[in-house]
Design goal:
By secondary structure, the chain is mainly α. A hairpin with a 7-residue loop joins strand 2 and strand 3. The protein folds into 2 domains: 69 residues; 209 residues, MetI-like (MetI-like fold), CATH 1.10.3720.10. The chain is built from 14 helices and 3 strands.
């Protein structure tokens, strides 16, 4: 048997200092960092966020961009169409246009002139159909309102029936919608998350009693709550705020309860309890952070519903009292003269649509960003 030992020269140490395979090619990211990166890649969510930022800035500073106040009335400038220098191609040229039809061309022209009080020098008519083919004659009348009333200043969104500037009132109404949005988010975060977390964590009789209370509130429609608040108080933002505070957090509480019921028996909660952590620390530091993504998503989805709820109440006359402005009251005022003066309805409707679409698109983006299955 050969007991010869191999020479040490046969063993050469491997140089691993420049081995690229041992390097970490991807930086270590936390859950929130990774979610934010995926959110930035979502073009729709970023557009929605940008639109919300722009609308918020305009709601804050928009009413101060001209000299007209929210309640400044002047019947001599009532129902003025929008006019902005350089934006006439968008229809913001200070003109009112209407099409009248009749059995004869002369009668159609007469009706077109009567539509704008027969101010011939400020009205241009155009024959769309002379009636020679057996159909009714149609005449389009274009009325230069600013020239007829001798107005030198421009109203960017026009004026309403009382001569109040629509630009100022629209952005003040947007403030109300954004206030409702942030109010709904705060109620969901403070009341809904706390209530649902306590109910699920303690369970048993505590959970049973708390859920029965929620079922009582669910049985009362929000509209009934608002009417009760109006009877007790008076129509206004306070009544809507109290109604949302009473029942606006129920869906969030149920969602948080369901998630915490799944997490409270996990090993990390048991380890924290074994180490002597108190109940409030377990809820604040372990359970709530693990469902925070779902909380943010559902809050973003609940905001458009709250905005629509306020606009609906104002539209049917249960929201803000006159002459206070909200998007709902402005839409209601514009709806009454939609065919003749569509601009009174147009701009508030566009803004409330942008707010609700932007929140929904951003919520979709947040849902995809917080979903681990969407991770690349």
């Amino acid at each position: 048997m050969d007991n010869h030992k191999p020479s040490k020269d046969l063993f050469v140490p491997v140089d691993t200092t420049n081995d690229e395979s041992d390097k970490i090619t991807r930086p270590s990211l936390s859950f929130w960092q990774d979610s934010f990166i995926r959110l930035r890649k979502n073009v729709g969510a970023m557009i929605g966020l940008f639109v919300l930022i722009i609308l918020t800035v305009m709601a804050i500073f928009g009413p101060y961009m001209n000299e007209y106040g929210e309640y400044d009335q002047d019947l001599s400038r009532s129902k003025m169409p929008p006019k902005v220098e350089g934006l006439g191609w968008l229809g913001m040229d200070g003109m009112l246009t209407d099409v009248q039809s009749a059995d004869t061309l002369e009668r159609a022209q007469e009706k077109a002139l009567m539509r704008f009080n027969n101010q011939d020098e400020f009205i241009e008519t155009e024959v769309l159909n002379d009636g020679s083919n057996g159909e009714k004659a149609e005449v389009q009348a274009t009325y230069d309102v600013y020239a007829a009333k001798g107005m030198e200043e421009n109203f960017w969104f026009g004026t309403d029936g009382l001569g109040r500037d629509q630009w100022t009132r629209t952005w003040i109404g947007t403030r109300v919608s954004l206030y409702i949005a942030f109010l709904a988010a705060a109620i969901d975060m403070l009341i809904g998350v706390t209530y649902g977390g306590i109910s699920a964590y303690y369970g048993g009789r505590v959970d049973n009693y708390m859920q029965r209370f929620i079922e009582i509130l669910v049985g009362i429609p929000n509209l009934v709550l608002v009417i009760l608040m109006i009877l007790i108080l008076e129509p206004g933002i306070l009544s809507i705020t109290i109604a949302l505070a009473i029942a606006g957090w129920i869906s969030m509480a149920r969602i948080v309860r369901g998630q915490i019921l799944k997490l409270k028996n996990q090993e990390f909660v048991l380890a924290s309890r074994t180490l002597g952590a108190k109940d409030n620390r377990i809820l604040q530091k372990h359970l709530i952070p693990n469902v925070l993504g779902l909380i943010i998503i559902n809050t973003m989805f609940s905001i458009p519903s709250a905005i629509f709820f306020e606009a609906f109440l104002s539209f049917i006359g249960l929201g803000l009292p006159t002459p206070m402005a909200s998007l709902g009251t402005l839409i209601n005022a514009g709806f009454q003269s939609l065919q003749i003066y569509p601009h009174i309805l147009l701009f508030p409707a566009i803004i409330i649509s942008l707010i609700m679409i932007a929140f929904n698109v951003l919520a979709d983006g947040l849902r995809d960003a917080f979903d681990p299955k969407m991770r690349e």
